[in-house]
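Saturday, quiet lab. Running sequence design on the structure tokens for the scaffold JK sent over.
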């Protein structure tokens, strides 16, 4: 650790990992819940279709964030 660093590299990596996995996990859970609430909605309605697409992308991004952090720390 040089004199200009506020925290060590290890602390920074763990902070960013917890932050990334936390935000990704929250998006994953919330968007799964929102998709579940739309399961009986009219799929022909463009607004419902757009919501399903957006929540699906949120699930994908959340999963990538959590899996990426796990892969980084477990490899």
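Result came back. Writing it out in full:
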């Amino acid at each position: 650790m040089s004199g200009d660093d506020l925290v060590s590299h290890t602390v920074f990596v763990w902070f960013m990992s917890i932050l990334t996995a936390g935000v990704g996990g929250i998006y994953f859970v919330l968007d799964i819940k929102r998709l579940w609430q739309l399961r009986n909605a009219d799929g022909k309605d463009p607004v419902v279709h757009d919501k399903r697409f957006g929540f699906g992308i949120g699930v994908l991004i959340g999963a990538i964030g959590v899996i990426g952090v796990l892969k980084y720390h477990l490899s």
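Notes for JK: The chain is about 75% helix and 0% strand. The CA atoms of residues 21 and 66 lie 5 Å apart. Ask whether to fix the surface positions before the next round.
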